[in-house]
Design a protein that fits this description.
Length: about 500
């Protein structure tokens, strides 16, 4: 530790603000920042919305230092924010790292490469990175990603010291096993000016037997409601129209806080914040979905008529083995209550096929729930064995060919149900938040009317012609045609 590091405040966020300044000074000394020069960064994010939100925070700090974003890995600083929920998520990360290593070697040896996120909370993965990827400069985990400025500062100082003593190792590795409190108020860069994600809690205590998340994201911690309310108020004031509240299990929000507050109560307070037009949340665990939550949803027009309610399996026997704490009947009864209270609600889900011990009978229960509920869409996953989870040691893993065949059957049912549901909206008029220019904005730059893409309250997309100025606004659109997973509409 050098003298300047010793001077750093011990409290957060002051400590990180100190290192932001420190990094800035070193980059200026190096002549890469200031006097018309700007270093560029690229963050590649894998996994769920929690990770995307973390990347916005990483970007906020990097931009405060003076970095600017670029779309490709040909950058001065590249960060990989990793996911490990299924094996293919990890495989994709390795592919990218190989690619960036080549860029560094061939084009820019002084490039800084960092890797963080859920994969780095697994000791074996960190070992692998250390051993096989010597070009990686910074390794950190999910619990200390707020420390990016400090870690970068340490690396820059190490590199400076190496100039005098070439044998020095510069790499910075800092992975914390457990989370230590929640750090608020560091700079954030929001990806969109009209939609934003807001964390309401971190971690997960549910330990579903297939799932790695509780091991890599730590124990459940809720943010204080006053901090959440303040953040949502500030975003609404800035013109953000739609907010997505984020947590692995939002329905257990409030547990462990000094104040007595449930998710339903929090949502009730947030729904009336001035200027906010749409409120969503993700993810709801069926076991904690309360009647109060349904009441609050039904009471406020601002709360989107959409719920993501992961089923995982329709077999009560397997649900028990998955440690999900609900039965097939419980799930169906929640769906009924939701639809009784909000007949137009869309329900989406996650389903795992091929969980250890899944029999044809278990699988047919899953198909049965899909037919009965008729989900508006479903993310379907082939079970992936995650080292360290209880299910990885179950000895009745399902053969690959059986899983594939079931997976295809499930996809068919899911696709048929979502297409049938989606077609019901044709002919109606709906409010749409205009998000982007559509896939084909056309070649004529003078053209006033371009294809826009917007999102309905039910989360489905609609394409329609309109002016670019409408991006970020909520407009009325007549739904004219249904293309199974999206719509074609006309601006009213
Ligand atoms: N907290 C959320 C889900 C987070 S992970 C919830 O409980 O609903 C997102 C989805 O990935 C899960 O819903 C599950 O369907 C899937 N998933 C998690 N672990 C998996 C594994 N080992 N194999 C296959 N799918 C998995
Ligand atoms: Fe994983 Fe279950 Fe927690 Fe969701 S609730 S993150 S599936 S352990
Ligand atoms: Fe992946 Fe971590 Fe999210 S493992 S799904 S990025 S919590």
């Amino acid at each position: 530790m050098n003298e300047d590091t010793n001077k750093a405040p011990l409290t957060e966020p002051e400590r990180q603000m100190y290192f932001i300044e420190g990094c800035r000074k070193i980059l200026e000394e190096q002549g890469v920042l200031g006097e018309g020069k700007t270093p560029v960064y690229h963050i590649s994010t894998f996994g769920c919305q929690m990770n995307f939100r973390d990347s916005e925070k990483l970007a906020g700090v990097l931009e405060s230092i003076g970095y600017r974003p670029v779309d490709s890995e040909k950058a001065d600083l590249v960060l990989y924010n990793t996911c490990t929920v299924r094996e293919n998520a990890s495989t994709r990360v390795y592919g990218r790292i190989g690619y960036v290593g080549k860029i560094k070697k061939e084009n820019n040896p002084s490039m800084i490469i960092g890797i963080c996120g859920c994969m780095m909370q697994e000791p074996d993965e960190v070992e692998k990175m250390k051993k096989s990827y010597s070009f990686i400069d910074i390794i950190f985990g999910t619990h200390n990603s707020y420390k990016i400025a400090e870690l970068l500062y340490t690396l820059l100082m190490n590199r400076k010291a190496k100039e005098k003593k070439p044998s020095l190792k510069t790499r910075v590795i800092d992975v914390q096993k457990e989370a230590t409190g929640i750090v608020e108020d560091l700079p954030v860069k929001y990806d969109s000016s009209f939609r934003a994600g807001v964390n309401i809690m971190y971690g997960c205590d549910n330990f579903c037997t297939y799932c790695i998340v509780p091991y890599v994201r730590g124990r459940e911690r809720s943010r204080r409601s006053c901090d959440i309310i303040r953040e949502v108020e500030e975003l609404a004031k800035k013109g953000v129209k739609e907010i997505m509240l984020l947590g692995q299990n939002v329905n257990s929000y409030g547990k462990g806080l000094d104040e007595k507050i449930s998710f339903a109560e929090l949502l009730d307070k947030l729904a009336t914040i001035k200027g906010l037009q749409r409120l969503r949340f993700m993810t709801s665990h069926p076991k904690d979905l309360s009647d109060d939550l349904i009441k609050v949803m039904a009471k406020h027009k601002t709360i989107c008529r959409h719920i993501h309610l992961p089923l995982q399996s329709g077999s009560s026997r397997l649900l028990k083995r998955m440690n999900r704490h609900y039965t097939k009947e419980d799930f169906l009864s929640i769906v009924k209550k939701l639809r009784d209270a909000m007949p137009d609600i869309t329900i989406t889900t996650d389903i795992i096929v091929g969980f250890p011990g899944e029999t044809e009978e278990d699988f047919s229960e899953t198909l049965d729930v899909c037919e009965t509920v008729s989900f508006d869409s479903a993310f379907t996953f082939i079970y992936s064995k995650r080292t360290g989870t209880p299910a990885a040691t179950f000895d009745d893993q399902v053969p690959e060919n059986v899983v594939k065949e079931r997976f295809d059957r499930l996809l068919n049912v899911v696709a048929r149900c979502s297409a049938t549901n989606a077609s019901r909206l044709v002919g109606t008029e709906k409010e749409v938040l205009v998000e982007t220019e559509g896939r084909d904005p056309g070649t004529d730059e003078q053209k006033q009317e371009i294809e826009l893409t917007g999102r309905l309250g039910n989360n489905l997309l609609v394409h329609f012609e309109g002016s670019k100025d409408l991006i970020g606004e909520i407009v009325k659109v007549k739904i004219e045609e249904c293309k199974d997973f999206y719509y074609i509409g006309k601006l009213i």
